[in-house]
Design a protein that fits this description.
- The protein is of the alpha+beta class and 102 residues long.
- The chain has one helix and three strands.
- It has a domain of 34 residues.
- 42% of the residues lie in helices and 15% in strands.
- It has a three-stranded antiparallel beta sheet, with no helix packed on it.
- The longest helix is centred in the middle third of the chain and has 43 residues.
- The radius of gyration is 28 Å and the shape is flat.
- It starts with 8 loop residues before the first strand and ends in a 13-residue tail after the last helix.
Length: 102
C-alpha cells in the first residue's frame, strides 16, 4: 500500500501563512493548519504614532485616487481614439450567423 503522505500536496497560503494539505487524486483539502500568531497588539505608548502613520497612508491613497480620477477622462479618450483608429483600419465584414455555418 502506498504511503498516504506521498500522495498529498502541502501548500502554504502567501497571504496568511496557513498550510493546506491537499489530496490531488480526490481533489479535496484534507487538513488546514492555522499559522502561529506573528504580531502582538500595539503598545498604548505607540498609539499616537500609529494614528499619524495611518492618517498619512490614508491621505496618500486619497491623493492617488484623486489623481487617477483627474486623468480618467484623458485615459478614456485615448483608449477611444486607439479603438476608433483600429476600427477604421480593419475591413468591414458581415458577421456570421448560426444559420450561415450549416
Amino acid at each position: 500500500m502506498p504511503d498516504q503522505e506521498a500522495q498529498t500536496i502541502k501548500l502554504a497560503c502567501p497571504c496568511c501563512g496557513a498550510t493546506l494539505i491537499v489530496d490531488p487524486s480526490l481533489a479535496v483539502v484534507l487538513r488546514h493548519e492555522l499559522p502561529p500568531p506573528q504580531h502582538k497588539a500595539p503598545e498604548l505608548k505607540d498609539a499616537g504614532r500609529l494614528l499619524r502613520e495611518e492618517a498619512t497612508q490614508r491621505d496618500q491613497k486619497y491623493r492617488h485616487i484623486l489623481d487617477a480620477e483627474k486623468d480618467k477622462g484623458k485615459v478614456l479618450d485615448r483608449k477611444f481614439q486607439e479603438l476608433l483608429k483600429k476600427a477604421r483600419d480593419e475591413p468591414i465584414e458581415k458577421p456570421l450567423k448560426d444559420i450561415d455555418l450549416d
